[in-house]
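ugh ok so i messed up the first submission bc i forgot one of the chains. this is the corrected input, ALL of the components this time, i swear. 549 residues overall. if the numbers dont match what u have on ur side tell me asap before i send this to the collaborators (the ones from the other lab, u know who)
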Amino acid sequence: MKGLMQDYPLTLQHVLWRAQRLFDKKEIVSKREDHLHRYSYTDMTRRAARLANALQRLGAKPGDRVATLAWNNYRHLELYYAVPCMGAVLHTLNLRLFPDQLAYVIEDAEDKFLFVDKSLIPVLNQVAGRLPSVRKLVVLSDGGPLPEHQLGETLDYEELIGRESEDFAWPTLDEWSAAAMCYTSGTTGNPKGVVYSHRSQWLHAMAVMQVDTLRLGENETILPVVPMFHANSWGLPYACGMTGAKIIFPDRFMGDGQIILDLAEQEGATILGGVPTIWINLAGVMEKSGRRLPKVHTVICGGSAIPRSLMERMDRLGLRMLHAWGMTETSPIGSVGTVRSWVPADQELEARLRQGVPAAGVEIRIADLATGEELPWDGVAFGEIQCRGPWIASGYHNNADPGRLTEDGWFKTGDVASMTPDGYVVIVDRTKDVIKSGGEWISSVELENAIMAHPKVLEAAVIGLSHSKWSERPVAYVVAQPEFKDQVTADEIRDFLADKVARWWLPDEVRFIDELPKTSVGKFDKKVLRNQAQPIDEEVAQTAGAPAG
Ligand code: AMP
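and heres the new structure output, hopefully the right one now
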């Protein structure tokens, strides 16, 4: 028997419809250089229609890629709506990519139109002359002269859309058609293009709104510090359009704790969203000034694990962090750290430090790193996270990479985790970084965290290097706090670790360096470390060996 329900396409045009018809009283606020820009959701949709008309006049066709190099602001949001809803594909460029990667992703995506914030012209200028596919370059600007550049002719966004009508005949779209593209940050090899469909964006937005996930609703005011150019901005631009939550966009001031605090306070933020570094900045400013944000009930944090010290510090400031895990390929919400109803109060902190339980719509399993067999949820066994669901990637643009899918269709994330019996994900490492010593696994991330808790240490990265007896052994690269440079020893680090990790986890060598290599998005680049590393000197190394050693 067939269900008797309408064949209603899940496209972003529905989100546009809500924004236009229901949220004229709801504000979108954007930080500008010397003032705040404000307008309503309905105003946003009117300008999105003008933009769609302009793009059509410029020759944009269904499926054409329209790239953005922009901060979190209202014009970027207009692009988020106009481009997919007219049938083109929004490609958000990560402005932190190295120039070669930036040129590569623009070419790989074959971007035809490129919209750039005036303040980011210098970033784009680094790839001037290397943009063969780009036909029109449009500058998003509040006015004034442009920085010097060699990018050729540019159009002005306001002039372009100012000439157009506020009515646009949005075409009927297939829910499976591409809506947006986002490239991975490429810790291994070239960045890869993840292609979101209308359907996946729609369902992901529905998931993001839920009380047990990111808690968005019409009566919330959200300050998204997570960039609109990274990991689909956690789906917030569309979840906001679904709910009508008030938005506060920080533009290029994301890393400025003072401005984030001012914006959150003045505009009455109730939810903040961003990576740990942002909250470290904010906490510093709040501690110094004594100012607090009593209206904020949730600080969503993802992108990397929340250090315990940060969560405790934020708790003292009255800011409750909500841990989320995901990746560009998972749209990105995979799991969210809501505390389960039966967790006793004295175990709440532990629960919140984990990476959360699978969001409704995502199935997660863990697979043995050697055999691929599914592992139990006992909180001990760890393996690669595999997931499936309607907003999980099934491949990459121009690159099928079947290696990322299991035979039965689950996506292999490359993250290593255990699952607790209560269904919490506990991230342990990346598959490429976990170290195998004497047949047993050592988590490089856990070792790094333990080393970084040492008061004289600023940063630490641990890699596995080959060893004749144990196959691999951990070696730590440590950057001392500036005031302790040359005043901390390998023995001091090893002694410090002695009661924190198993004896056979102790690094064979601790090597002090001035700076750790980082990827374009600021994660430790262990590939570079591994390539440059001197082999372990087995004569002098203090090998504690494998489990039995
Ligand atoms: P990206 O695709 O650039 O957003 O990077 C995604 C990767 O960041 C994931 O595969 C994880 O390795 C890491 N990551 C994201 N969220 C978390 C988290 N809450 N805890 C630990 N690692 C995380």
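quick check: The longest strand covers residues 457-467. that seems consistent at least. DSSP finds 15 helices and 25 strands in the chain.
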